[in-house]
């Protein structure tokens, strides 16, 4: 068994593609992808904020202050339209970005005219910031009208504040920064960890089964004086080693990036959140991944043994990756917590446990049951893999 394991490991480290997915992706590629995504999102938001908006003002004579303010505000360009124009068609054809419709009852004396409903016609399907930019101008006019009305009523400053907000509901959050942000983003971290672990094990698994068939070296292994279950265990350990390496590098990378961020290279809440996660929690995350990787290794090896070719094995494994989304998405669903039946759902319970470790609210005694149940499933799948490898009709399809 160990001879097979050492042989496969030597071949594994010679495969640059496998090493890339095991090492480079967790350390560099995923953070780079995240950085690029954040950069482009920020660029798109900045572009939308600075874009010059073409607009039309209907009923501008009723609100000369708004008309004047928009004309002198940078980033707005007024377009004249016909009185009976089709607003929707003008916006669709990009003749204007929005149309502001002022009602006839608009007045600077709100005590006499009452509330006015201004309509903003726009296509709000994309990131355009139109509403926010127009709302800033309208809000400025609202404050002026409000101050005029308060002056007419001769209200003091305290009376004005009490009239605007007679009751204030103050939120006192008992959750600390770690628990608060762990609840918001803690479900995403198991998603990336599981995907990277599976991906790190996929490539060696496809090669150790289907790849051996294509190269014609599987028959040589079968006639060697080694019991078949030892061949399976040797290949299983190789795949599990690859997956665990990806898991270790992923968790280590997460800890290192957290350390970097905690040194002041990120915004304040990220620094506070990442620096609050202790080294013990990172170690427990890695230990929880050990039986998960064993599950992945058993399933992947079984699929690879069954496949006729390397390409067929990859198609099976691609389907497995899509199926993996189900238990992960369950862990991110609202109301799903590490209690009751969810504590026994395979993979979902591990994802929930990692989320609780990130939040700092983990009941550590639950880890024993979760680890034990996951290890039991992994053992059963490994036994099935050995049984599968002993079937001639599977090996020589």
From TrEMBL:
Compartment list: Membrane
Main location: membrane
Keywords: Membrane, Transmembrane, Transmembrane helix
Pfam families per UniProt: ABC2_membrane_3
Protein's membrane topology: Multi-pass membrane protein
A molecular function GO annotation: ABC-type transporter activity
Domain ABC-2 type transporter transmembrane: 16-387
Membrane-traversing stretches: 20-41, 236-261, 282-307, 313-333, 364-389
Gene Ontology CC: one annotated term: membrane
InterPro entries, A to Z: ABC2_TM
PANTHER family in alphabetical order: ABC TRANSPORTER PERMEASE, ABC TRANSPORTER PERMEASE PROTEIN NATB
UniProt name for this protein: Sodium transport system permease protein
Source organism per UniProt: Aliiglaciecola lipolytica E3
Lineage: Bacteria, Pseudomonadati, Pseudomonadota, Gammaproteobacteria, Alteromonadales
